Structures are given as structure tokens and as C-alpha cells.
Amino acid sequence: MAVDEHLRADGETGVYALGDAAAWWSRRYGRRLNVQHWDDAYTAPTVVAHGIVNGSGAELVHDPVPYFWSDQFGHRVEYVGHHDPADTVTIDEYAESSWTAQWHDAAGELTARWPSINPSTSPRSAPSCSFGSTRRSRVDDDLSVLDGDR
């Protein structure tokens, strides 16, 4: 269901949508996004509750930076942002077989990043994305960079 940045389905009727059902307007990316991720379903209710309480005066906006991470066959895969097919990708290679892919739009703004974890790094010692932990990952760092740029 198409919703605005406040997760309202059709303006002032009091109908909201969130989670997998919602394609919200992203100010950051200038298009609708539908991110089917547990974190989106976890954070969106705060915006809906704010909208219900404040009505047309609601100021809280739902526009999270999309991300995912996964451990696959002993390797960590991480991605943060949302790139358009027209964005330019650059791949930076570092020592010890490490690399990072970054996407930039026509204006040169960073839209997405795929940091690699050094293949020689054990998954057990790789930075963690566990919520509630004091350990932070590259995804957390990239989220703050992308969130602060817009």
C-alpha cells in the first residue's frame, strides 16, 4: 500500500500502513521504498502512534536507511543504503584481500555501501551487529554515515 513519509495511507483519513504492506515515501531517496525487514516493522509503529496522537500536526517521519547482514558459509555479507541502477559503483581494494563497493548518485552523494569482511577474519571475531550489545559493526557505522549525509 502506498503511504506518505508519516505512514498515512491517504492523507487525513486516519488510515496507516506499516511493515511489509507499506511502500513509504522516502525523502532521502526521492522515491517509494518497500523494505521487508524486521527492523522496519520494529521502528515504524512509533511513527504511526505519533501520527495518531498528533493528527495533521505530526512531524515524525519514517525514513530509515535500509540495511541487511548475513553470515553465509563462514563469511559475513553486509549492505547498507539503497542504490539506483543508474548510480556509479566504485570498488576499493585494501590489504589482506579486503574490499568495499560504494554507490554514488549523479550528484556524487553516497547512496549505498557493501563493505567486505576480510575473508581471513573468523566469523567469530568479525564485528557483530547484535542489538543490545556494545559491539558495533561496519553496518552500524555505515548507517550513521548515510543517515548523516541527508
Structure report:
This protein has 150 residues and is α+β, with helices and mostly antiparallel strands. It has 2 domains: 2-57, no CATH class; 67-149, 2-Layer Sandwich (Enolase-like, domain 1), CATH 3.30.390. 19% of the residues lie in helices and 27% in strands. It is built from 2 helices and 8 strands. It has helices spanning 38-54, 138-149; strands at residues 2-3, 23-26, 31-33, 67-72, 75-81, 88-93, 99-104, 110-115. Strands 4-5-8-7-6 form a 5-stranded antiparallel sheet, with helices on one face. The chain has a 3-stranded mixed sheet with strand order 1-2-3, with no helix packed on it. Strand 6 (88-93) and strand 7 (99-104) form a beta hairpin. The longest helix has 17 residues, at 38-54. The chain is elongated, with a radius of gyration of 17 Å. The model is unreliable at 120-140 (pLDDT under 50).
Which features characterize this protein?
150 residues; alpha+beta; 2 domains; five-stranded antiparallel beta sheet; 2 helices
Order of helices and strands: EEEHEEEEEH
CATH class of the largest domain: Alpha Beta
Lateral strand order in the biggest sheet: 4-5-8-7-6
Q: For the report, how would you describe the main beta sheet? A: 5 strands, antiparallel
Query: How many domains, in number, for the residues?
Result: 2
Count of discrete alpha- or pi-helical segments spanning 4 or more residues: 2
Q: What structural class is derived from the secondary structure elements?
A: alpha+beta
C-alpha-based Rg, rounded: 17 Å
Low-pLDDT parts are 120-140
Mean pLDDT: 77
Provide the CATH topology of the largest domain. Answer: Enolase-like, domain 1
Number of strands: 8
